[in-house]
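Whether sequence alone determines local backbone shape is best considered at the level of individual chains. We regard such an encoding as a compact summary of how the chain folds. The sequence in question and its structure tokens are set out directly beneath this paragraph.
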Amino acid sequence: MELLIKIFGEGKDLNALQMSSRGIVMFFIALVLIRLSGRRSFGVRTPLDNIITISLGAIMSRAVVGASAFVPVVVCCFVIVLLHRLFGWLIAHSKTFGRFIEGDKIVLFEDNAFKGERMKDALVCKEDVMQGVRKSALTEDMNKIDKVYIERNGEISAIKKQ
């Protein structure tokens, strides 16, 4: 037990070795938690997915610096990952729940016209839309574009005309 305290420390007065040891352990715990959480956590990037990233980072850091007890931090992180996984499952299996949690796509451009009110609702300007068009459709010619959406994750995507 004394060896563990020497390696991992107690409380907030930790030296570099103790914080590094805690950091290594938390790194491996984070890998396990991310695997449990699923690929969506760092792939889809919706607001729900960003919440888990920010929450886990903030909470796990408390264990590394000794601001909170180690085991309760790990348990809290595990609960957040399970909650995220549950919400992901519900989103995948219920369109209504998905719309409630993540919203819906918004059409920003169609019929050769920018949709000003929808753009205001989405808090984007014409240049934001054009940036998305250049990135996803590889063009600046709006005559070649059928529709432009702001997706649930905030990305702007364009559909070319056939």
